[in-house]
Amino acid sequence: MAKDKKVEQITDMDVDFAQWFTDVVTKAELIDYSGVKGFFILRPYAYAIWENIQSILDTRFKELGHENVSMPVLIPESLLQKEKDHVEGFAPEVAWVTHGGAEELAERLCVRPTSETLFCDHWSHVLRSWRDLPMLYNQWCSVLRWEKTTRPFLRGREFHWQEGHTLHATPEEAEAETQQMLNVYADFCENSLAMPVIKGQKTEKEKFAGAVDTYTVECMMHDKKALQGGTSHYFGDGFARAFGIQFADKENKLAYPHQTSWGMSTRIIGGLIMTHGDNSGLVLPPRIAPIQVMVIPVAMHKEGVLDKAAELVSRLKAAGIRVKSDVSDQSPGWKFAEYEMKGVPLRLEIGPKDIENGQCVAVRRDSGEKITVALAELETRIPALLGDVHRGLYEKAKKNLIDNTRPAKTLEEARTIVAEKGGFVKTMWCGDLACELKMKEDAGVSSRCMPFEQEHVADTCVCCGKPAKKMVIWGVAY
Amino acid sequence: MAKDKKVEQITDMDVDFAQWFTDVVTKAELIDYSGVKGFFILRPYAYAIWENIQSILDTRFKELGHENVSMPVLIPESLLQKEKDHVEGFAPEVAWVTHGGAEELAERLCVRPTSETLFCDHWSHVLRSWRDLPMLYNQWCSVLRWEKTTRPFLRGREFHWQEGHTLHATPEEAEAETQQMLNVYADFCENSLAMPVIKGQKTEKEKFAGAVDTYTVECMMHDKKALQGGTSHYFGDGFARAFGIQFADKENKLAYPHQTSWGMSTRIIGGLIMTHGDNSGLVLPPRIAPIQVMVIPVAMHKEGVLDKAAELVSRLKAAGIRVKSDVSDQSPGWKFAEYEMKGVPLRLEIGPKDIENGQCVAVRRDSGEKITVALAELETRIPALLGDVHRGLYEKAKKNLIDNTRPAKTLEEARTIVAEKGGFVKTMWCGDLACELKMKEDAGVSSRCMPFEQEHVADTCVCCGKPAKKMVIWGVAY
């Protein structure tokens, strides 16, 4: 019984990008649909990507002094309601546990949509003195949000993420933490996922429920839409006051600490699929690819081929490469298509002729380029080629971002760009909500962020003509 | 504001073991209580222990070919009901989600108490051919069971665990997997946690809901009660039939696969606290201790002391030891008590006299023994001492297990042992449920397991006098 599903074509990404995405996540064996809408099964290949993401981020968080903890999965309704803006933002989209065993609960409990309230409740128990600060916590978990429309990775009723939560003695320290963690996300997107980002601040309208300031890294997908890569929030002492979190400062006076939170989720996997994928399937950046190199023996029943393939695997493994070989009885052609679909960054072909010539053939997943590699140079050439694939992916995505981010001075100009070319529009903005809403209504775009790298596009707001305060990047967002 | 809570005495473990346990988990900063009964917060120190446990087990699972996946946190009621024995075992103790956002759900969803039904549903979608077998999956997650009485680590309404789930072409392969994973747990308990185990099979009464056979590793706590360390289940093809999971075998005929599951949870942290702890607090086995060595500078304001302490830390770190130093302004005595409470396996004291003599003083947490270590030999002596602590803990726990496991030939004898001495009783058993229930009723003990290492205690059943089939270990269990 051949796995014939593999040879089926996937939808052309430039014809129907949404269907292409669905085809890729199922045919690359990332996702299965569970019996409950919006709850997706992360199959081994998807979970291995997430584990690589976790490993890099977790190491970085710990280098910066953060510790992992585990908060409960359920939040009492009364606790969720303690911070006014926060509950307004989240209550409409949470799932409620009303019964435990045979009994109806006295108070209903929501499955956590985010854990600010739990961290605050805990801190109100344990924080005593300035000596205890800062408290630098992180949690890896899944959260629930009862979304109406759902898509694998991009919008699930359950998704995995990390949520960092920190407490500091002063606003300055908390602000610095917020910026530091945003930079961790930016570096991670660019250096590990080959996804270029725009760093900036969210508008009042787009910020997190309960935050003073929200910062974001925004990415552009292949279809020129925006995806938020990670966000970092500064809360001031609002939650601390709502939850009665206080500490004795060095003068032994009671003070409220200042707080941050920051998160990145499995959404970023959807982002990297839509940034790098092509019409042959997934294309994975080497630094998070579960398999970086797939060795395919050609004419594998000829003497010495399987032995040589095994030797390549063990040499590359010893060099720290995540490598496998496929010695199943499928044809080489089937295998090529399979690992292209799965986005393995490099394929190594080795056959009798190659062995005779002391070489193998490396095929780059990103460009299709074939490179002859002398076997003697395997341990230096393969890591270098993986670096080339990373840079190739990054440059291509960067070009997409730059080529499709256009300045506009008037609403009319913005509307035309969005309608005819898509992508991001950068305009000046007066800071008023009315103009932000008008951009959505008339041009169909929302504010993605006010980039840290500001440019002077014009003197006046794109909508109302009043003096401009900030340059804003606008786009259609996932 | 001094952290004066540290100097408070904890309850004497031989006076009130339950209160001692509660004191230790709070004062060692492992646990905080959340606002919902039975939901415990794992503070950084507890979570770091769990991460070390995860890291060792996860590496071993992967070496044996297992892959991690993520299944949904919610299970539809109809899915939970597909396997009759399974639903009877779990339905009474699950939490139910009945509302998503503002809407009442058409079908209520339970928060997973375990994920067999989800894995089976997934496999029924994706299994096609013998080529796909075995499927060797594992999941790290938390699960919910709506228990009436709850205690940190030992019985929570939410707890963390790993659940392995595997599918095999033949019963023999599935049985071999069940045994293999039980051995992984036994090795882990003994070699990483210094907890000696008894390996054996559960009786019909005590086995997992829906399993054909359940195997267990049983441990003895300081108070001579039993704690189940980990379990491994063989399911036959019962779930496969209930969920319609089939594959085309090599002759292209449809067949049902055979299934296993196996799990270890954060309960084991409760187990290691109750195995090794003493009246000064926690005692952590070195291989999972978040901090293996704590360097305490003595007279630290004298010239050169802080520099030398920092040098010791960096040398030990380079040698692969998890080491910290405490250079806060607390007194050395306060620090000694603090890291005794936290169970750090080795304390290193370094002061001006030590520096003069080119040495430091190592203090073993398990025995209190003080050992002078020449600074020149730091990198060899410290790992050796950590090994000694591990062996010391293991031997002490092993002695407790052996000394407190007693044979009994009659029910009267068993009852007297349990009442007067506590610990485990080993007796012969005819295999009848009635006799198992009588042991519970008359002697107050439940069957822990039928050990793989059988002994001939007598010819006849301890209860009914009929011919014996198996030797059973009985005890009072957590």
TrEMBL record, chains A, B:
Function statement: Catalyzes the attachment of proline to tRNA(Pro) in a two-step reaction: proline is first activated by ATP to form Pro-AMP and then transferred to the acceptor end of tRNA(Pro).
HAMAP family to which the protein is assigned, alphabetical: Pro_tRNA_synth_type3 (MF_01571)
Species for this entry: Sporobacter termitidis DSM 10068
Taxonomic lineage: Bacteria, Bacillati, Bacillota, Clostridia, Eubacteriales
Enzyme class at the top of the EC tree: ligase
Quaternary structure, from the entry: Homodimer.
GO CC term, one of those recorded: aminoacyl-tRNA synthetase multienzyme complex
Protein name: Proline--tRNA ligase
Pfam families reported in the protein's UniProt record: HGTP_anticodon, ProRS-C_1, tRNA-synt_2b
Family matches, as InterPro entries: aa-tRNA-synt_IIb, aa-tRNA-synth_II, aa-tRNA-synth_II/BPL/LPL, Anticodon-bd, Anticodon-bd_dom_sf, Pro-tRNA-ligase_IIa, Pro-tRNA-ligase_IIa_arc-type, Pro-tRNA_ligase_II_C
PROSITE patterns recorded: AA_TRNA_LIGASE_II (PS50862)
EC number: 6.1.1.15
Family of the protein in this entry: Belongs to the class-II aminoacyl-tRNA synthetase family. ProS type 3 subfamily.
UniProt xrefs under SUPFAM superfamilies: C-terminal domain of ProRS, Class II aaRS ABD-related, Class II aaRS and biotin synthetases
Gene name tied to this protein: proS
Main localization of the protein described in the UniProt heading: cytoplasm
